[in-house]
């Protein structure tokens, strides 16, 4: 079969779309004929190399994908041939104290398809049955293959970890990116007033379209000062920050007393300064969040399948154009998901 892969860490040039051995189906696995698969910034980090993660080369990229079941393992009862499925990339042991309490994304050995183990940017992928979500017939492959990672991440951040509710004020950074795009919709759906940041007017218009009442261009104004003005000096209840050091201090300044900063990543680096005086005096909370439980993923994807939430697609490319697909994410000039399709399925 053909697969997107790399044999060493590096820039986009290490990516190829070449022959790769067929995956084998274990007792608890399902073989999926991939129809569409999306890129996430995680794919770039994995390609460049993540400290502490040792990969087996060649490594198949990709954490998001969807397709048709063609084979099931001996112990699989949830799926059968012909089923339409989407990949939910989190994997867990099922035995540790966190798994036994239903907190799968806190598992002692939690890892991600496409980051720690081979991914799904290929013609076919063998995926544990527990990592698959049924897809209704009316949902297109481009949508099914590009929503699982970001929507479940944003859902857990806002509902489970930050506990948002109607009337809250929520600031979402990078609102035109994957997690930000999902977070804007989820917060608006919960009845919150949404403030979104972006770097261009086109990205801000995109955020407004999907539910942001206020949009702030962080290249033209200090977003914390703008939040102060827009909220009459109060601040917001929740900040969704997956940026890191570049926004961290101003994000904390943007919170009202008792507010919560929730983070799922750090695209500008892992180390940020925190004013501890501000933290304790204003009784703020800093909350981390990673992916979601299977139930949380089901809950939010049901709202994608029924059209409550939607995903914007920037471009759909053949998998052989994978280097260009990575460039689209790295350039940070557009908005929406970049989707790749196996060349054998691609219809330009």
Structure characteristics:
seven-stranded mixed beta sheet, six-stranded parallel beta sheet, Rossmann fold, 348 residues, Quinone Oxidoreductase, Chain A, domain 1, 11 helices, alpha/beta
Uncertain residue ranges: none
Can you give the helix content as a percent range? 25-40%
Largest sheet: 7 strands, mixed
The CATH superfamily of the largest domain is identified as: Medium-chain alcohol dehydrogenases, catalytic domain
Number of β-strand runs: 18
Enter the CATH topology name of the largest domain.
Quinone Oxidoreductase, Chain A, domain 1
Which overall shape is indicated by the principal axes computed on the Cα atoms?
Answer: globular
Structural class: alpha/beta
Strand content: 25-35%
> How many whole angstroms does the radius of gyration measure?
20 Å
Provide the domain count. 2
- In sequence order, what are the helices and strands, one letter per element? EEEHEEEEHEEEHHEHEHEHEHEHEHEHE
């Amino acid at each position: 079969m053909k697969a997107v892969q790399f044999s060493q860490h590096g820039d986009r040039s290490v990516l190829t779309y070449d022959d790769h051995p067929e995956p084998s189906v274990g007792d608890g696995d399902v073989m999926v004929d991939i129809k569409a698969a999306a890129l996430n910034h995680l794919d770039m980090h994995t390609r460049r190399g993540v400290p502490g993660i040792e990969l087996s080369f060649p490594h198949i990229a990709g954490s998001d994908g969807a397709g048709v079941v063609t084979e099931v393992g001996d112990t699989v009862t949830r799926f059968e041939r012909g089923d339409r499925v989407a990949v939910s990339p989190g994997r867990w042991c099922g035995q540790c104290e966190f798994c036994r309490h239903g907190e799968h994304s806190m598992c002692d050995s939690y890892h991600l398809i496409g980051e720690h183990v081979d991914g799904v940017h290929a013609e076919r992928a063998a995926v544990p049955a527990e990592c698959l979500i049924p897809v209704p017939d009316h949902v297109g492959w481009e949508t099914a293959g590009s929503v699982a990672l970001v929507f479940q991440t944003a859902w857990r951040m806002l509902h489970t970890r930050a506990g948002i509710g109607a009337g809250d004020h929520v600031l979402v950074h990078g609102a035109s990116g994957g997690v930000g795009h999902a977070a804007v919709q989820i917060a608006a759906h919960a009845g919150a007033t949404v403030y979104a940041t972006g770097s261009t007017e086109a990205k801000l218009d995109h955020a407004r379209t999907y539910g942001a009442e206020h949009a702030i261009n962080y290249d033209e104004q200090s977003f914390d000062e703008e939040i102060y003005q827009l909220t009459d000096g109060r601040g917001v209840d929740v900040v969704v920050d997956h940026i890191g050091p570049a926004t961290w201090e101003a994000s904390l300044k943007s919170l009202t007393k008792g507010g919560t900063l929730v983070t799922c990543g750090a695209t500008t680096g892992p180390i940020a300064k925190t004013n501890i005086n501000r933290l304790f005096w204003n009784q703020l909370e800093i909350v981390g969040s990673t992916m979601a439980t299977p139930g949380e993923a089901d809950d939010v994807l049901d709202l994608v399948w029924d059209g409550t939430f939607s995903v914007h697609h920037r471009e759909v490319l053949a998998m052989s154009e994978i280097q260009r697909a990575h460039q689209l994410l790295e350039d940070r000039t557009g908005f929406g998901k970049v989707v790749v399709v196996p060349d054998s399925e691609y219809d330009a």
